[in-house]
């Protein structure tokens, strides 16, 4: 191969810039030309493609977001749209594509691969919901951001003897919520991997009050319940002032942690090395501290993410 492309797709994640930088620098180091595709699959379809040089990725390693831009582009599910995308890649003479993103991005990459165009997926999402890797790029930074917010909420909850319910991102994966609950010493946690009802949670909060707790922090993964209504119900049942905080998109921004920069750099470099070895249709991951790769189609369709029962148990025993 002589020319490769790189794009970021789906929700941005801190560390994506570091991954793009690694793809560009490893590519150039090995004599390849590297092309940046702007605004994810939407930009690929719109032929928004520019050649990147060494200095195109200067001073980006420490920045959150993605300088290539990102987009959600459901139209990419259409085969005709993907055909046009492949036509654009062929016009530029780009032989293979590195896709940095979450599960939707992997789906796009696997579909292109099925159509004969080689892609390599790099897991970039704050949700940590991609199979085949222990960590996704952005998770560590988002976790740091969430725990910082939780620490602040603890100060004010303790001062006012209030219950604080915090909604945390993660889509349908509880890793960010569970990690924040353990690291933030939160009293209760609700994640999609485990059974949940408002009533059961309220009973637990009531038990906490009986135990003598004056204030409590509750971590709830998004899409599980409406935390404003839940806060009202908690107040009604317990008689304790309760506040709801949706952390929202602040969780997605900010400078990547050193850990995220390191895994992004390792994964970006590894993806290029795989392409140089003639591997396509793969996705990269970090497992047992080592870089690994899997069949991207198998990863999407068959591999499962493990849920940490150990952390789940800790969230109870530390109560
Ligand atoms: O996948 C990352 C993520 O931030 C999820 O945690 C969240 O559910 C979703 O993206 C939000 O998407 P959007 O930025 O399109 O509103």
Give a quick summary of the entry:
This protein has eleven helices and eleven strands. By secondary structure, it is an alpha/beta fold.
Structural description of this entry:
With 319 residues, the protein is of the alpha/beta class. The protein is built from eleven helices and eleven strands. The strands form two sheets. The chain has a seven-stranded mixed beta sheet with strand order 3-2-1-4-5-10-11, sandwiched between helices. A four-stranded parallel beta sheet has the order 7-8-6-9, with helices on both faces. α4 (103-114) links the parallel β4 (96-101) and β5. It is elongated and about 70 Å long. The protein starts with a strand and ends with a helix. The mean pLDDT is 97. The structure holds 6-O-phosphono-beta-D-fructofuranose.
Give the SSE string: EHEHEHEHEHEHEHEHEHEEHH
| Cofactors, ions, other ligands | 6-O-phosphono-beta-D-fructofuranose
Structural classification: alpha/beta
- What is the helix content? 40-55%
* Low-pLDDT segments: none
**Order of neighbouring strands in the sheet with most strands:** 3-2-1-4-5-10-11
The coarse silhouette is elongated
Name the average pLDDT. Answer: 97
**Tally of DSSP β-strands:** 11
Please report the distance between the alpha carbons of the first and last residues: 55 Å
Give me the number of helical elements: 11
Quaternary form: single chain
Subcellular location: Cytoplasm
Function: Catalyzes the phosphorylation of D-fructose 6-phosphate to fructose 1,6-bisphosphate by ATP, the first committing step of glycolysis.
Binding site for Mg(2+): 103
InterPro entries: ATP_PFK, ATP_PFK_prok-type, PFKA_ATP_prok, Phosphofructokinase_CS, Phosphofructokinase_dom, PKF_sf
């Amino acid at each position: 191969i002589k020319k490769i492309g790189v794009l970021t797709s789906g929700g941005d994640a801190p560390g994506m810039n570091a991954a793009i930088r690694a793809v560009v620098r490893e590519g150039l180091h090995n004599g390849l030309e590297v092309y940046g595709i702007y605004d994810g699959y939407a930009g690929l379809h719109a032929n928004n493609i520019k050649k990147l040089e060494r200095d195109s990725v200067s001073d980006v390693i420490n920045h959150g977001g993605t300088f290539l831009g990102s987009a959600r582009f459901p139209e990419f599910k259409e085969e005709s749209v993907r055909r046009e995308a492949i036509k654009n890649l062929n016009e530029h003479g780009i032989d293979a594509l590195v896709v940095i993103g979450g599960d939707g991005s992997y789906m796009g990459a696997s579909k292109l691969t099925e159509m004969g165009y080689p892609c390599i997926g790099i897991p970039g999402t704050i949700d940590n919901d991609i199979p085949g890797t222990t960590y996704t790029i952005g998770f560590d930074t988002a976790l740091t951001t969430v725990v910082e917010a939780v620490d602040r909420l603890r100060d004010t909850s303790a001062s006012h003897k209030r219950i604080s319910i915090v909604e945390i991102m993660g889509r349908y994966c509880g890793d960010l919520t569970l990690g924040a609950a353990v690291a933030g010493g939160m009293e209760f946690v609700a994640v999609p991997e485990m059974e949940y009802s408002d009533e059961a949670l309220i009973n637990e909060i009531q038990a906490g009050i009986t135990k003598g707790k004056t204030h409590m922090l509750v971590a709830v993964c998004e899409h599980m319940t409406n935390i404003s209504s839940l806060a009202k119900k908690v107040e009604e049942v317990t008689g304790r002032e309760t506040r709801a905080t949706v952390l929202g998109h602040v969780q997605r921004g900010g400078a990547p942690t050193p850990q995220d920069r390191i895994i992004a750099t390792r994964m970006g470099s590894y993806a290029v090395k795989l392409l140089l070895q003639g591997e396509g249709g793969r996705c990269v991951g970090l497992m047992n501290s080592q870089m690994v790769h899997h069949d991207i189609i198998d990863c999407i369709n068959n591999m499962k993410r493990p849920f940490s029962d150990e952390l789940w148990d800790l969230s109870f025993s530390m109560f």
